[in-house]
Each structure stands twice: as structure tokens, then as C-alpha cells.
């Protein structure tokens, strides 16, 4: 309901993949709201449990993954579970530490990559590559919305399990 009310727009949109779409899902309008953070954190923990994933931390490509990771980390803390959050930059900083992964990431950590919306899986793949370059172990990918446009299949085909809180079909966006 929150996604439908706050995050779905209809019209003619060009997606990050370059494809045109009659709808756009700006999940940040939900995931960055107080109510949305609470719901996403709770649902995210539920999906982790359902899948049997016990990550040390959660994170993904900035910016869409950031509120999702933080929501799960906070919800976990309320339940006495230490699941920290991290973010992956699109490219390493040219100053300071020069890191590509920021936040509570440690080398070799067991993680779940999070996403706001999966379309092609490209953002998740970028985050996976950065984490694996730091010897991180990927348990799976957790998304708020699966647009059902091949991203899940691409990630699963590459050997990564995918869980989504909802789909474009469930939001009434696909026949």
C-alpha cells in the first residue's frame, strides 16, 4: 500500500537500463519515510529468516539500497540481532581512504545484498562484485520490489538467491 501510494508514477519513463516503461517505482519515497523504514525493516528481517540467511551485515549500491540496509539494521537491533549496514559506492573515492565500500563492512564478511528495485539486476551485480573483491560471502539478494523484467533470473542464473518483498504484478503494474 505504501509503495502504491508514495512510490509509483505512471507516464513514459526511461529506466536506468535505457528501456522505456509506462510506470516508474521510486521506492525511496517509501523507504526513506518513517513509516516505510519501519515496514521495510520488519519485512526485511522476515525474509532473512524465511530464507535462513544469517548475515553479519546488509548493504548494496548507493543510493537505493542505503535506506533498506539501515532499516533492516535498526529492526534487527530492536530484536537484539547485530546486523550492521554498509553502502557500496558506484566508484571508489579519489580522496581520503579511497574505499568503494563504506559503513560497517569488514573484509570477508557474510552479507546479504539489498536493493530497492530490481529491474535488470545490474546494481546488485555491481555491489556483489565490490563485496566479493573484499572476500565477502554473499548469502543472497533481498529487494523491496522485483519489477519482473529479468533481473531476478539474471542474478539467480549467476548463482545468487533472490528474495523480494513484493513484485510489479502484486502492485498491479503488470498484467
Provide structural commentary:
35% of the residues lie in helices and 29% in strands. The two termini are 18 Å apart. With 175 residues, it is an alpha/beta fold. The radius of gyration is 15 Å and the shape is globular. It has a single domain (34-167), classed as Rossmann fold (3-Layer(aba) Sandwich).
CATH topology descriptor: Rossmann fold
CATH architectural category: 3-Layer(aba) Sandwich
> What is the CA-based Rg, rounded?
15 Å
Helix content: 25-40%
Q: Count up the helices.
A: 6
Low-confidence segments: none
Q: What string, H for helix and E for strand, traces the elements in order?
A: HEEHHEHEEEHEHE
* Helix-and-strand structural type: alpha/beta
- Distance between the amino and carboxyl termini: 18 Å
> Biggest sheet: strands, sense, closure?
6 strands, mixed
Strand order of the largest sheet: 5-4-3-6-7-8
Q: How many discrete domains?
A: 1
Task: Report the count of strand segments.
Answer: 8
Global geometry: globular
Mean pLDDT across all residues, rounded? 95
The first-level CATH class name: Alpha Beta
| Percent strand | 25-35%
Sum this structure up briefly:
The chain is an alpha/beta fold and 175 residues long.
Amino acid at each position: 500500500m505504501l509503495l502504491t501510494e508514495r512510490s509509483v508514477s505512471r507516464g513514459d519513463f526511461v529506466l536506468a537500463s535505457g528501456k522505456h516503461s509506462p510506470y516508474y517505482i521510486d521506492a525511496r519515497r517509501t523507504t526513506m519515510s518513517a513509516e516505510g523504514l519501519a515496514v521495510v525493516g520488519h519485512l526485511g528481517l522476515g525474509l532473512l529468516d524465511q530464507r535462513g540467511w544469517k548475515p553479519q551485515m546488509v548493504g548494496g549500491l548507493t543510493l537505493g539500497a542505503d535506506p533498506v540496509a539501515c532499516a533492516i539494521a535498526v529492526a534487527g537491533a530492536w530484536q537484539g540481532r547485530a546486523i550492521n549496514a554498509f553502502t557500496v559506492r558506484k566508484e571508489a573515492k579519489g580522496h581520503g581512504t579511497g574505499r568503494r565500500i563504506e559503513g560497517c563492512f569488514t573484509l570477508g564478511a557474510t552479507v546479504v545484498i539489498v536493493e530497492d528495485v530490481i529491474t535488470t539486476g545490474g546494481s546488485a551485480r555491481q555491489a556483489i562484485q565490490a563485496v566479493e573483491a573484499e572476500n565477502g560471502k554473499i548469502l543472497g539478494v533481498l529487494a523491496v520490489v522485483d519489477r519482473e523484467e529479468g533481473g531476478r533470473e539474471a542474478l539467480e542464473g549467476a548463482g545468487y538467491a533472490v528474495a523480494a518483498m513484493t513484485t510489479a504484478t502484486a502492485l498491479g503494474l503488470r498484467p
